[in-house]
Amino acid sequence: MSSEPVEGEARDPLAHEIQELKLKVGEISDRLDVLSRATMDMKADISKLSSGLESLQREVYKLSESFGHIVEDIARSVLPSILFTKMGVSVESLERRFFELDGKTVEVDIYGLGKRLAEGEAVVVVGEAKARIHGEDVRLFHEKAQRILGHNGCVGDPVLVMYGLYLHPTAIEEAKKRGVSLISPYLELVKLKAPNGGLTGHSQQG
């Protein structure tokens, strides 16, 4: 007798494998659905985090700006007495001032007119206030001050000052070279014009 398998029996293993394959494809599809939902949730979380970071950055900027204004207010309040006692310069008040130079608005934190007590010579005080002052800050301020002093409305011997809560060593070196007075609650560095037109200076712990 013939031992050839019946046609239905020959198809059973293939059908079984196809059924298993379908089950595996179904499992993979379910896992992909889970992964897709997890990805969407992660995107939502990242979006919330990004929005939160942007909000935090805005708040930090506002805080930094407010702190900067506080430092400026302190500088304008204390500098008149420091200029008077340490440099012999009398100035009634200091203010923020805006200048129109070459079609652009240039702002300075500290500006005022006064005179030297000894000679009665007119002076113009130009200054800047920052929480932290580095050498590059001194250079940029000095360059800006030179432009302002070239303005027709600025009449008087220039007195350049910078007030900061922290003075980096590079700022002190740059100030010495450029004749800028650096003043802080912890260190006061004053560069004065000597009678012969040269520069003298002294540093004082305060």
Question: In words, what does this structure look like?
Answer:
- Residues 75-191 form the DUF8196 domain.
- This is DUF8196 domain-containing protein.
- Pfam families: DUF8196.
- With 206 residues, the protein is an alpha+beta fold.
- The chain has a domain at 72-205: Trna Endonuclease, Chain: A, domain 1 (3-Layer(aba) Sandwich).
- The chain is 51% helix and 31% strand.
- The chain has three helices and eight strands; from the N terminus they run αββββαβαβββ.
- The protein has helices at residues 7-87, 135-149, 169-178; strands at residues 89-91, 95-101, 104-116, 122-133, 157-167, 181-183, 187-193, 199-205.
- Strands 1, 2, 3, 4, 5, 6, 7 and 8 form an eight-stranded mixed β-sheet that branches.
- Strand 5 (157-167), helix 3 and strand 6 (181-183) form a beta-alpha-beta unit.
- Helix 2 (135-149) packs parallel to helix 3.
- The chain is rod-shaped.
- The termini are far apart.
- 19% of the residues are buried.
- The model is unreliable at 192-206 (pLDDT under 50).
Features:
eight-stranded mixed sheet; alpha+beta; single chain; 51% helix; DUF8196; DUF8196 domain-containing protein; rod-shaped; Trna Endonuclease, Chain: A, domain 1; 206 residues
